Amino acid sequence: MEYFKKILRFAKPYKKYGFLNIFFNILYALFSALSFAALIPMLNVLFDKTKQLTEPPVFQGIGKAKDYFMDYMNYQVTQYSGDDQMKGLVLVIGLVLTLFLLKNVFNYLAMYFITFLRNGVLKDIRNKMYQKITELPISYYSEKRKGDVIARITSDVLEIQHSFLSVLELIVREPLTILFTIIVMFLISVKLTLFVFIFIPVAGALISRIGKSLKKKSDRVQKEQGEFLSIVEETLGGLRVIKAFNAESRFYKTFKSSTDRFFRFSNTLLNRQNLASPTGEFLGILVIGVLLWFGGKMVLVDETLDAASFIAYMGLAYNILTPAKAISKASYGVKKGNAAAERVLEVLETENPIVDTSDALEKTDFKNGITLDNISFRYEDEYVLKNFELTVPKGHTVALVGQSGSGKSTIANLVTRFYDVNEGEISIDGINIKDLTKKSLRNLMGLVTQDSILFNDTVKSNISMGKENASEQEIIAAAKIANAHDFIMELPEGYDTNIGDSGNKLSGGQKQRLSIARAVLKNPPIMILDEATSALDTESERLVQDALEKMMRNRTSIVIAHRLSTIQNADSIVVLQKGEIVEQGSHAELLSKKGVYKKLVEMQSLAS
């Protein structure tokens, strides 16, 4: 129930719908019992057992409630019908129909209002999940598979709606239906009603025994669903490579083994769950059989109960079966919902290590420079950067070069605060970036990465991502600086052309120039370029490099370079090796030293 309580927090904004649901459920339960009790006078009229009463009866206390109700109905039938019994029959049939109609109207209204609560909670949990997914640091997703996260925000949240929130419908209606029905049954016959209480503990014990392993089995199903969604996500992302290496059959085998496990786990879970309904129904019919024998004896032998009351009583006894079965199924629902809620709450309750401090500053300008003061950082056990120091004065371009794994991209991740340093500090204008709000820090920076990350939207929407209210003129101006305007105008709908999933309708160079246009439009004082030209052909590189140079004018830039020819004009070049600076200086200075940098330049010259 702990998870259930946590999920119910999301129901607070919709509590008025919950109260309306409870109100109409109470009326439904009451009229459900009364509608069966109203069968008694109808049967009495049919069997000609109605007493002719010309004076209204007097209520003599709750113990005589049944007699009062019967006498009152007999009085009304007498008044209405006189000597015509068909008139009396029409009256009691009308009463039964009215009660059943009201019962169903109240049932509909109860379900109508709970719908707003259920769907509202579903919406809010999904929104909260998405917000949390975007807030969590990048490091979180290096440990989690994307498909598993997708499964949690889709199928797990839906499972919560089907299981936990469906219990809300039953939590008032079914117990009250049973309660009101039992009260009416007691009024008809105390002796006969005691038999009903044999059913409840026996059924409860059996159903509890069946349901104990449901949460564990449900958890396995949901984890496996996340597994095959991950495989689908990876397959779609790497389809070119899969086809190029004829690896379709290998990935199919992996996917098939996952769906086979899902098939087995789902069968076990559903077969166990489906056992509840027939078990409950058989136990109910068993009790009905005993009641028929015992009640029949009271009617035929003992003559302590009239036939009309006994038939109505049997209807009431059967009326208990449906809510009892619903409650037993709901107990399964809670166990299944527990597994789903645990997975959803695991994401929602994950602590974000990169958060704004309570007194974080909003920094809107950039005056002096960036300082990396004696920083050390590790992703897991080994340090990627050790006692690293670097100063980037305002207006300067600093290039970071070195072999793969030397820590270049890590510096970009730390300056943008995608990760926090383990030791030392990074400051902007002398203020530790941990003391700035993440939003204001990232507003000062533009990022162009090696992989052009674009979205399935129009050219205009992709460029204006960093400045939502940008005018068309601003977007075109940014595209011109990025050497992108000409090719955009050649697209079918120009700036309104949809570029497809990840911008796949464009070439690598075109995608990269859109990424640059996006950074230009944001117009930040600090620019971070993470190997922005390394994946391009020579012609595209020339256009992109020209765009980058135009963009970097009058800006502070940190350039992570793979191709050394692109950073020869940098104010300072920093050569990294295993997370430490081994050389630093201008292009000419480093060549004259004849050290690591000169070797890297010569190696690239030979390679080209």
From TrEMBL:
Keyword Transmembrane found: yes
Stored InterPro entries: AAA+_ATPase, ABC1_TM_dom, ABC1_TM_sf, ABC_transporter-like_ATP-bd, ABC_transporter-like_CS, P-loop_NTPase, Type_1_exporter
Membrane topology: Multi-pass membrane protein
UniProt keyword terms in alphabetical order: ATP-binding, Membrane, Nucleotide-binding, Transmembrane, Transmembrane helix, Transport
Gene Ontology CC terms: plasma membrane
Cellular localization per UniProt: Cell membrane
Name of the protein described by the UniProt record: ABC transporter ATP-binding protein
Limits of the ABC transmembrane type-1 domain: 19-336
One Gene Ontology term of the molecular function aspect: ATP hydrolysis activity
Transmembrane regions listed in the UniProt entry: 22-47, 89-114, 178-207
Domain named ABC transporter: residues: 370-603
Gene3D superfamilies named among the record's database cross-references: ABC transporter type 1, transmembrane domain, P-loop containing nucleotide triphosphate hydrolases
Organism placement in taxonomy: Bacteria, Pseudomonadati, Bacteroidota, Flavobacteriia, Flavobacteriales
Pfam families: ABC_membrane (PF00664), ABC_tran (PF00005)
